[in-house]
Write a structure and sequence with these properties.
The protein is built from 39 helices and 16 strands. By secondary structure, the chain is α+β, with helices and mostly antiparallel strands. The chain has four domains: about 150 residues, Beta Polymerase, domain 2; about 150 residues, Four Helix Bundle (Hemerythrin (Met), subunit A); about 180 residues, no CATH class; about 210 residues, ACT domain (Alpha-Beta Plaits). The strands form three sheets. Strands 8, 9, 10, 11, 12, 13, 14, 15 and 16 form a nine-stranded antiparallel beta sheet that branches. A hairpin with a 6-residue loop joins strand 12 and strand 13. Helix 5 packs parallel to helix 7, helix 31 crosses helix 34 and helix 35 packs antiparallel against helix 38. The chain starts with a helix and ends in a 5-residue tail after the last helix.
Length: about 850
Amino acid sequence: MRAIREQLHAQREQAIARWRRHQRAETLLKALSRVTDTALRATLIKHPLPSGAALGAVGGYGRGELFPYSDVDVLILLRRPASLADQEKLEHLIAALWDLGLDLSHSVRTVVECQRQAANDVTVETALMELRWVGGDAHLVSRLQAIMQRQRDPRTFFLAKRAEQQQRHARYQNTPYALEPNCKESPGGLRDLTVIQWMTQAAGIGRQWREVVAAGFLDLTEYRALRRAELAFKRLRIELHLLAGRREDRVLFDMQIRLAQVYGFESVRGRRPSELLMQRYYWAARVVSLFNRLLMQALEEHLFPAPPTALRVIDRHFKLVRNRLDIRQPEAFIQQPSLLLEAIALMQDRADLEGLTAAMMRAMWQARKRLDASFRRQPQNRHLFMRILRHPTGALTALRRMHTLGLLAHYLPEFRRIVGQMQHDLFHVYTVDEHILKVIGHLHRFATEDALHDAALAHRLLRQWPRPWLLDIAALYHDIAKGQGGDHSELGARDARRFCRQHELGAEDTELIVFLVEQHLSLSRYAQKRDLADPIVIREFADIVRTPERLTALYLLTVADIRGTSPKVWNAWKGRLIDSLYQQTSVLLGGAPMDMDTLVARHQQAATALLRADRLTEAQRDVFWAQLGTDYFMQHDASDIAWHTSHLHKCPDTPIPVACCRMLEHGEGMQVMVYAPDRADLFADICHYFAECELSVQEARIHTTRHGWALDSFIVLPVTGDAGLRSRIPSVERDLPAALMRAGEPPRPPFRARPSRRARSFPIVPRIELSANPHVEDNWRLSLVAADRRGLLYNLAQTFAQYQVDLRMAKIMTLGDRVEDSFTLHSEALQDPRRQQAFERAVLECLSSNLVN
């Protein structure tokens, strides 16, 4: 066996060396299959099969496409159930195959068992379609192949594989544009091509693409585009396996960097080589997604032909075939390109239509380049596009259809620049074009009843908004200038103004759209980085928006934008901050006073109403509130004030630390209140506890009472995404006070932790900004941007304590693997320029340290 193993290894290395010289992907895959066949047949000589049995290859190995570290899927086919002697032979054979160093996946079945399992499991049926003889009784393999072909029902198989694909796509968020896709399983990956080939084989059309062309399901232009994409994916998967030294189909960030080096990409106009690599990936994924959809629909039409009564003429250009829109003359789109937009608009008008026919999709894709500069200048085409955007049902489905068919990128050249554009900011998980469409999708969702449970304010506001299409245009342009260099908000506003001028929008609508694009980050920045208890901050933001209409539009776009970055970025505490800024600014723009006394009184009245259920006397409440001070009532909303008062009014002077926890709305995070005698390193100790428990601090409010007690409030989320946060409440309430009973002990060392894999692949250069608060003496505002890592907040807190800087407020904004934090600090020492510079250096060093466990 050692000789067979060494020969297999040598032949594999020779095949890979030839691949390195010639870069022929399918030649390598076939060569690896052949050398594996040779090794298996040599093994069968030393460890023979039971009498009458056969060894067959299935899966990718069966079709002669063995990637460098893929599973070697084999079927041991028995003529009859195995006897004890047969079982012993099989055990020796399988052990010998494992000894070859193969990643073996095997099954042992009789012909009858194969029939039965294939009838009940489409996965087994699919694997047996790839069955290929390797050794033993070839007639037994042929017999099973013939039986399976007779048993297979093409229609049933088609429906089962289509459902299977839908489930697989859902596991990958139904998008080919994720930033770390799986080149095999993600939508637009290799599996989408293989599924079509299985379906065409089951339908009797043939398995090879040339057979599909011959049957009229593809023309030569489409075939060449599809083959380029297929070969690109095969090469990528080969390179991934070779770089990883194992089976690896995920195009992870660190792999993207290494792949770009292998492919020889170089930076162009500030774009990383890995970005250029991935833009090519998304091009291929888009082609595969389109042809997967087109061919699957064509196969459905072939397997389930429409009766003559299912064909109806709409007008001189369009007809319906089985309730799908079709073109009467395929060349009409070439002769009259305006029909491309008319078809999209017609689909919007006819909600009863189920989609486009395969022939229609093919004709539209082939005519996409007719949407050129001359087309865009024609007023009737601009009016058609605006008709699509203004449609009462919304433009999302139309825009997605246009994007899939390549029409949107040709109609809007500025959109074409961001197709497949990556975002290496460590919190977006989609390409720019996909993110834009997801933002529009969230805007449309706000109008539905589904939004009531998690976006009630957005739902109410959008239902009252008279022209939602203006928000769609703002969403379409808010990130359209990314990757151009410079401020993408300003550049995008310029592009949006040009679009509005070309499409004859009125001055009022134009100014609103331009404002939204230019300021689309402002509400988020103020809500998540500034002190919303400060009336000056609210007034600053009100001066930016100026009108209630702009405020509402910006709120809706902001919430949709954050939700469209990643399924994990939005949570209830962010929603509460953004809602609070919206409501306070709305009050101010409505003419209500925003002075401190009015706000304090409003918060106290609302908290008193909430406390009535606790049967708390006014005297008990007032004794506790007298210790809190005006700043406290400015910083906290009524719910927090009532919660704190209910738990703490009986123990205002307790020397024992108190910790209380409650879940946020919808369970998206836990709020932790800490009440303890204040000391310089208290905040650092609290952060150390959270870091040890792998709880990520999302927000911190720091308050010191008039009698020297700290009343701090934190929003925390589990680092690991663990859903069992509620079950941790008892342990936090018990263990956190115990951890804080350590006054006078030496400080703990800094946490030694690395940034995440993503942050290491695309490192962020830490940035800080320290500025004096002109309104409050000795108060400073520290803003920072850095890659997140465990214990970072504790290490920062230690730095604050080392420089005798008191923390008054912390706004912790965690965006995936990136943090954008703001702190309000109090320190007389920072008035000294040298002390200030030393403090800034220390903070930067804390952020820059890549400490390893």
